[in-house]
Amino acid sequence: MRVSGALRYLGLVAVLTGVYYFANRLGLLLRVDYGGVSPIWPSAGIAVALIWIFGLRWWPVIVLGEFLSALYLDQTFALGLSGGLIQLMEALLCTALLKYLHVGHRFQNARDPLLFVLIATLVPIIAGLLGATGLWLNHAIPQDKFLNAARTWWLGDTMGILIIAPLIAQWRRWPFKNLRETGYWLGLSVLLVFCSYLILQLPNLNEESLFFLLLPFMVLGAARFGSAGASSIALLLALMVLVFKYNFVNSEFDETVRVAFVGVSVFTGYMVAAAFAERKSANVALDVEHERALVTLQAIGEGVISTRADGSVHFMNSIAERLTNWRAEEAIGRQIEEIFPLSFSETRDNTDEQENTVRHCLRRGAGPEILTRRLLRDRSGKIRPVEGAITLVNSTNGDLLGGVVVFRDISEAEQLRERLLKEATHDSLTGLRNRAAFDRKLRDLTDTVKSDQHYALLYLDLDQFKIINDTRGHEIGDRLLVELTRQLRGLVHPPNVIARLGGDEFGVLMIDADERHTLLLAETLRRAVLDYQFKERELTFTVGVSMGVTFFSAGDRAPEVLSRADIACYIAKESGRNTIHVYRPDDASMLKHHSDLTRISQLQTAMSEGRFRLFGQRIQRLDNRTGNDAGQFYEVLLRLMEDGHIVSPGAFLPVAARYGLSSMIDEWVMNESFKLLATPRLANAQLSINLTARTIDSPDFMRQLMEQIARYRINPRRICFEVTENVAFENLNRAVETMQRLNEKGFRFALDDFGTGVASFSYLQSIPVHYVKIDGSFVQKYADDPANPLIIRTLSELAKLRGIECIAECVENEFTRNELQKLGVSFGQGYFLHKPEPFTAA
Asked: What is the pTM (predicted TM-score) of this model?
């Protein structure tokens, strides 16, 4: 491959050297015809083209060609060598300058031909001086001919570079795209030759020769065919002008003018070609941007209509076509009011401020302007809400050119907004108002300035609904609520309001209510719930309702009103359920609840004063196994100190849970427990901490827990959270999700009071727990009821099948401990094993 490449290179060098040699012969011939002054030296243009376009490796062609020319003229070896080196130097210097200044071959901008002509004019001056010096030193010319030889060298090389180098650059590949362009070029060339011939036939041609009439051919060729046309027409012009030498005898000035004409024509042609190339490039770029803009306008999801200054449409994108039901080709030229009619209402006689908004902006000449919600009537008469913006387009001198309307259909957005508004104010299951909407309505009534109206609040809590939900599933429970709600809604007429406040809790607000009508409606609602029968397959379910009633007027505080109704409902439940209780300040039951409120205040004070204490009761292994749980394992127990006495949690936690303090207490217990785990005394201990439903359901629970873990640097595997069945099942899906996320981080869970719920076995399939705590009622009376050992064995074996360990509560004697051990219970907890003691004393 290398040998064949070298042979190919040598062959091309030989061919090109021959071409270069004959180009030199042609230059010598022209010099003879022009009295020693060569108007064009083709080999100079060939030399520059070889180095500039094809690379430095073709330098031997220049040196060899000049050497052969010297032999032809019987010149010395030194003279031939110097001539070759000077021509090579000229080509290298031109190429270096052209590449340094980034002059392109095709003259795509006005800068390229301007720099090319400047370089082609200046560099040959150096070559001419050096060439004349070489001729003089080798005694080829006398001293008095030095300047004439330098001028001849400069003129010939300049014209050769100007014409031949671009000609080779443009014609090394066929410059025309098709036969049609080729035919146009041939026709122009033939016309040029014909016109030149006609000029030659004219008699008495003087210094104002008609060959200047040939210049338009150069302009036309450059404009039509670019640099390729300019370079080819330049060569033809040079040939035509040289022909004048053979027909007319003119002065040296006339000959110089003709050569100058060729040079000026060449420069003009290149500049025209560059100007048209720039224009074509700009047009292409403009077309690309135009297409990009059109594609962008078609691709965006909003309608776009542009108008002229008189309001006539001249562009629409596809979205605008769809929204207006007008095709763009039909709409263009029509007035904006016809294509884009806007109004505030759906009546046809309603206009948009008596004038189309777009027309209004065009008339005022002010923009941009926000297009607020309007109704657009499309071509078919369909109305849709739209909004957007109007922007005016002005010229550089401030004249109005038109406007652009960008608009969008907001039908879906309005429907979504209405749906979200309904979802925000209505219960998704029953369609009644939700708790938030009910609270707002209650606040509106209590905050009103009217003082002559009286109101009533009925708080309804369904009885036995949870049993149906637990035994038959949430789907059946939801169906029951939907059907029952339909009946209740029919009994509450506007302006009275009914709402769903929670899972099975409802509220009714009565406007301008007296006690007789209020109690009559309450009894009607109670009877409707009691008489309602829900059938599911072969089963029939009935529920009751406990109802609390309170009266209020403007000026009362809404939270207090709701609290009074809630207390009355609670008393109704405590009184045997399915009853109605009216809140009265002097009621004994009410006084008890006020006592509970006092207890809440005391709890808050106790917390602020630091009177809560943490006790611990050890959970001990019964199966003699060793492992991570074989060491210290405590359940954290909360106690309250009052007047030097210990108050058990049963005396205050139910009240705290009812009145929303349970989460606060849980947070305190967790924080104090983590402090204990960080102490050396409990460095290897595991703590079991009780949590309430409200804590687990809190959206901040996970974040706060992880912050405390990071703060005290506690391993999550040392923490076990105890939850009762009721905690997990108030919102099973959410509880399971929270427990699973914590389980992945290493936390453990224990299910408390296991075995007492109606669906304990099925819950193990869904709740991710590590321990189940067998309810103490089975353990305490272990020997009293023969069913208890069977129940405990069953619970233990079921837990083991799930990979869960059992903890038996209330182990009070050695017999029970031994029996539990035989039944395979893993852990035990009770006074026999360990009495609770304060952690601070441990």
From this structure: 0.43
